[in-house]
Give the backbone structure.
Amino acid sequence: MIETFLTEAATGAQFGAPLQAQGEVLTEIQNDVLLNSSLWVNIALAGLSILLFVYMGRNVQGERAKLIWVATLLVPLVSISSYTSLASGLTVGLLEMPAGHALAGQEVLSPWGRYLTWTFSTPAILAALGLLAGTDFTKLFTAITMDVGMCITGLAAALITSSVLFRWLFYAISCAFFLAVVYILLFEWPADAAAAGTGEIFGTLRNLTVVLWFGYPILWALGSEGLALLSVGVTSWGYSGLDILAKYVFAFLLLRWVANNDRTLGGDAFGGPVPGDD
């Protein structure tokens, strides 16, 4: 009994996780030029972004500005760790698609580690945006928890192999969480940003974020996890391209503004006056 449990746990069968031998998965990754290149390009860009963002934040002084810088720096830090895990095969698995799926019965390479990236990096993006807007803690907490729910249910949609119906059900739940985040970005935080004097830069970054983030569920639906209209390599490059724009370009624009407008931010982390100020 114990031996059976250990054997199943080692192969992922006990927990339903795609934990095949990493050597086999690594070979699959390296044989797919599109997939492999999409991972290594992001590793390189994340590394360069870390160095650049550390340099850009060297003179940031205000408490709120520092918190925005830390939250923004977390984005490439999480990404380089996650993409390295993907490139090594650690967080990639082979999943047999269920009946009713376009690739039913076939083993499909699933880079499920991307959901780990998003679970940690997208809350950091929202934290930076919320701090920029000077929103209150409740609104920030709501946005981040909705975002985490979106990522976790998206992971569930990607990993379920028992039923195609449940894959799409979890996809729909994930999209509902996503729309809650979009609502906060479009209708809750703009007024806070206007009151904080950061309305213009917030509007630019909000629009960039909302437009790009809509690309992720679209790619899921069209890719091998959904309708299988796109190959794994093409889908991976789509996600990687979105990550480059939604993470590194977003972070660069934000940090450049913060570095040049440190005094404009002022206040504490949630927009209040600095202690001791008259």
